């Protein structure tokens, strides 16, 4: 089918077995992951809140990177009665992870892996406390996604995805990265996921507040206008990382930031999209987390502090 055309034949394959993946949080990125997993033949169910039971659910309207639109049949379940869960993929906004998971305390069988894929840090530790008998896996991803309506998603950028263990029990679940790779084209397992989380935090501290405040696409951060501020953000993040036992050069962080800016040049950051839609942003889990760790070590981070305040005032 030529790119840009709609394939209106709903893929009617019903899931013959219990879903491989249960997805909590079907926003832009969650919707894209659910679509890619479904297309790769890994039955995926989205878990919704009870109040969505009456909502029409024709399936997911998914536009892939090449512009091909398809209507995908996808099973839905409800949090109050989640049924059997084999593995749980949590893709809510960072600030909603704990409240979205709380109804599943006592419902999720021990040993079921919980994979967390959100921006920001400081959440996984809370999930380990909530679910002490489950493997908890943290992930970082740089895929781009947009949502333009109810269950209407577009994959806007092919990125990298990395998973790694948060607790001891999670170390036996590296195979999950291979299964995600089947759907995403690439996904890796890294025992040092904390380092990747910090590197992603630096990228988000740099790109997200600036694009949201100045209403820019990611690519518009290139050039002299933002060169100094991007460098200062990276210097501050590197100082905090050093104190956290994650030594890195600020130039290396800046190089990563500029690489993501180039790779996602046409995209609007998630914080830009959240602000435009009047949704709560992830500033607390991103820059807020950095400020918390900086304060704990007595490190001044004035540039990040200023961006944090500016977003808080605007959102
Ligand atoms: O993670 C992102 C986001 O928008 O939240 C980046 C990597 C900045 C891509 O837009």
UniProtKB/TrEMBL annotation:
<keyword id="KW-0566">Pantothenate biosynthesis</keyword>
<dbReference type="Pfam" id="PF02558">
    <property type="entry name" value="ApbA"/>
</dbReference>
<dbReference type="GO" id="GO:0050661">
    <property type="term" value="F:NADP binding"/>
</dbReference>
<dbReference type="GO" id="GO:0015940">
    <property type="term" value="P:pantothenate biosynthetic process"/>
</dbReference>
<dbReference type="InterPro" id="IPR013752">
    <property type="entry name" value="KPA_reductase"/>
</dbReference>
<dbReference type="InterPro" id="IPR008927">
    <property type="entry name" value="6-PGluconate_DH-like_C_sf"/>
</dbReference>
<dbReference type="GO" id="GO:0005737">
    <property type="term" value="C:cytoplasm"/>
</dbReference>
<dbReference type="InterPro" id="IPR013328">
    <property type="entry name" value="6PGD_dom2"/>
</dbReference>
<comment type="pathway">
    <text>Cofactor biosynthesis; (R)-pantothenate biosynthesis; (R)-pantoate from 3-methyl-2-oxobutanoate: step 2/2.</text>
</comment>
<dbReference type="InterPro" id="IPR050838">
    <property type="entry name" value="Ketopantoate_reductase"/>
</dbReference>
<protein>
    <recommendedName>
        <fullName>2-dehydropantoate 2-reductase</fullName>
        <ecNumber>1.1.1.169</ecNumber>
    </recommendedName>
</protein>
<dbReference type="InterPro" id="IPR036291">
    <property type="entry name" value="NAD(P)-bd_dom_sf"/>
</dbReference>
<feature type="domain" description="Ketopantoate reductase C-terminal">
    <location>
        <begin position="193"/>
        <end position="315"/>
    </location>
</feature>
<comment type="function">
    <text>Catalyzes the NADPH-dependent reduction of ketopantoate into pantoic acid.</text>
</comment>
<feature type="domain" description="Ketopantoate reductase N-terminal">
    <location>
        <begin position="22"/>
        <end position="167"/>
    </location>
</feature>
<dbReference type="InterPro" id="IPR013332">
    <property type="entry name" value="KPR_N"/>
</dbReference>
<dbReference type="GO" id="GO:0008677">
    <property type="term" value="F:2-dehydropantoate 2-reductase activity"/>
</dbReference>
<keyword id="KW-0560">Oxidoreductase</keyword>
<keyword id="KW-0521">NADP</keyword>
<dbReference type="InterPro" id="IPR003710">
    <property type="entry name" value="ApbA"/>
</dbReference>
<dbReference type="Pfam" id="PF08546">
    <property type="entry name" value="ApbA_C"/>
</dbReference>
<comment type="similarity">
    <text>Belongs to the ketopantoate reductase family.</text>
</comment>
